Predict the 3D structure of the following.
Amino acid sequence: MSEVAEETAAEVPAEVEALDGVASGEEAHNADRPARGSGIAKHKKSNKPGIPLSDLEVGAELKGKVKAVQSYGAFLDVGAQTDALCHVSRLSDDFVSNVEDVVSVGDEVSVRVVSVDVEKGQIAVTMRSKEAEEAAASGGGRRKERPRRSGGDRQAQQKTLKGLADSGFDDEKFVEGEVVSTLDFGAFVRFDASQLASEVEGELDGLVHISALAVGRTENVSEVAKPGDKVQIRVRSVDPKGGKVSLSMISKADEPKPRERNGGGGRGARPRWSPDEMGAKDWKESLEKFEQPSFANSPFIVDRSK
């Protein structure tokens, strides 16, 4: 019996073994969502090493390494299958106006898990004390005095963002940029805004999503871009209010077209019948040319006395 059991265990299919630790089919579907994928590949579990998101617990303390810094927070490698975000409001008990006043790329920090969204593949962490988090959650706590903004703060960035947005830049023009950091979902690239509008001064950081790194599917960001690389990018959109810039490394003509949405059938649904199968478009007008018979109901009596 033991030999049979050992033989059976050895023959467990790889796809079954890969689902070990996944609680449900829905979790398996969302454990890793590659960009713009479809078909079977979209439902595969990530092969990236690290702690599965389903194993992370809220409140757990982790060591993290800063991988990228943005105006809204810092992305950290905490040893999980995806990077964690520490929002700017959770970097310190004190008010933080500039993320780089607190952390820089390469810094090693201690964080606590605030929330985990397995479906979206997102981890939120905090560097604040437990008391500060509890006070913020309850809406209480003393609001600390805001320190002065640093010299390279977001005010200059906002001015550059607004200037570029108002300039009517050419969204098909390629300019040079430098990769400053990479994450699972894309690469952050820094570029001089004056390349697109001579009257605009300053540098901006924008995100090239993994789906816009190259024509076709990209499995790994590092296959295409690494920190320090000089790359050709074009600006797709600028959001001054959100402080975000969307970039692309492929031409506008090569970008995947958005899926057409049809009423009923859900996302990406196709018509049940083709135009040829639907017949003539003027069927209603043609039908009106024919005289239609009229019908009237009359009583029908059945004699059951016989």
